[in-house]
Amino acid sequence: MTEERFIYLFNQQLKGECSALEYREYTGMLKSGKFDHVASRLMDEHWIASNDVELDTTVSQDILRKIFAHKEVKWGHKILFENKNWIAVAAAAIALIVSSVLLFKPSPADPIAAPARQLSALTVPVAKRSYVTTNEHQKVTLPDGSTVILNNNSTLKIASNFNQERREVEIIGEGYFDIKHDIKKAFIVSSGKVKTTVLGTAFNVRAYINNKVEVTVTRGKVSVLSGHNVLGILTPNKRIIVPQTGVRPQVLTVVASNSIKWQENDLFFDNITFDAATVILSKKFNTPITIADDKAKSCRFTATFLQGETLDEVLKVICSFNNAQYHKNADGIIINGPGCL
Q1: Under a CB-based contact definition with an 8 Å cutoff, are residues 124 and 250 in contact?
Q2: Where are the domains of the chain?
Q3: 25 touches 53 (CB < 8 A)
Q4: Beta bridge partners of 289
Q5: Cα-based distances in Å from 186 to 146, 192, 281
Q6: What is the rounded distance in angstroms from the CA atom of residue 24 to the CA atom of residue 7?
Q7: pTM of the entire structure?
Q8: DSSP classification of residue 50
Q9: How do residues 292-310 score in pLDDT, each as one tens digit?
């Protein structure tokens, strides 16, 4: 049994073109355990090629370990494999893992699922060094718990030593940063020659290629530098504009909330409880929302809404995730349901 043969069978299985004999040979090779390291590498390669995502070694090994321990692999609240032959699960799950984004995106033809741009992937962490958007926004949760919402046509690059001595990222385009406070580790955002340094705050950076750099603070305090020169210390409702040329930077007083209107209609629910999601929706749409059944409150889900969906559109989707229904009365919206599927 050679590595080359395993790679051939892996790809045949991935394409769904294994014959019965090849499938038995493939599962036998998986069962032997001799090719776990090869499978891990192939998973990385296929995942990156399909989804622009990089799985680090520990993650891919953890996936294999969970598969071979015949544990459940879940999609949201749906159990994909349960009480089945573990070898068959392993063979299918590898192909599933490297193509899960394609298999489980909601179909635009489905009126219930359509408002949700993307659902959660398998419940395993994904390590990634860069994020790129084209015509949509994306929320990125960094290893330290900080978050970044990227605007269209933006790129966020994360330093390989992020969260060791310091926390450093680079942005091309526009992003809204909400930084977890860490007095021991400064958070640095590089945008061309300009560096924005904070310990914990919220601010917007606009730095498209061949354009001026703008930093606007909504909460806390940031320091903006070029090389070793401090260009400005910003507090809430302050903006600095740094031109590409040698023109002196400007510090202005602004309404900071206006600088982030580009993402005010976005809704990012990231492994959130049903109860917490309704609190967000109630505030956003100024409508009281109550979950009548306590069991349903703790259900968790992930979903993203980027098209300015109405409250009804959002509720239809998240109620379908959480085995619930809703109705309106004079006091607002009441959600009923027995709990998670």
Answers
A1: no
A2: 3-104, 138-262, 266-336
A3: no
A4: 333
A5: 12, 19, 33
A6: 15
A7: 0.58
A8: H
A9: 988 889 888 888 888 889 9
* Positions of the chain with pLDDT lower than 50, given as ranges: 47-57, 59-60, 63, 66-127
From CA 9, how far away is CA 217, in angstroms rounded?
A: 54
pLDDT the model gives residue 195:
95
Tokens 């349901």, residue located = 337
DSSP assignment string, 53-83: ----HHHHHHHHHHHHTT--EEETTEEEE-S
Containing 157, the helix (H) or strand (E) segment is strand 155-158
The half-sphere exposure of 314 on its side-chain side, counting CA atoms within 13 A, is: 26
Q: Give the integer Cα–Cα distance in Å for 284 and 295.
A: 24
Angle at CA 154, nearest 5°, toward 149 and 155? 95
For the domain bounded by 138-262, which CATH number is listed?
2.60.120.1440
> What contacts 211, CB < 8 A, 6 or more positions away?
244
Beta-bridged to residue 150, according to DSSP, are 138, 175
Contact 184, 206 (CB under 8 A): no
- What CA–CA distance (Å, rounded) separates 102 from 105? 6
Backbone angles phi, psi at 219, to 5 degrees: -155, 140
* Cα 232 from Cα 163, distance rounded (Å): 25
Q: Show the CA angle centred on residue 315, arms to residues 313 and 316, nearest 5°.
A: 65
- Cα–Cα distance measured from residue 168 to residue 116, given in angstroms and rounded to the nearest whole number: 31
Amino acid symbol at 308: G
Give φ, ψ of 174 to 5 degrees. -135, 140
Phi-psi region of 163 (alpha: psi -120 to 50; beta: other; left: phi over 0): left
Domain 266-336, classified CATH 3.40.50.410, yes or no: no
Question: From residue 71, how far is each of 65, 86, 150, 209, 326 by CA, in Å?
Answer: 9, 9, 35, 47, 34
Three-state SS at 156? strand
- Phi, psi angle pair for 224, to nearest 5°: -115, 125
Distance CA 281, CA 269 (A): 11
pLDDT tens digits, residue range 236-259? 999 999 998 777 899 999 999 999
**Which CA distances in Å does 2 have to 25, 38, 61, 115?**
12, 11, 21, 47
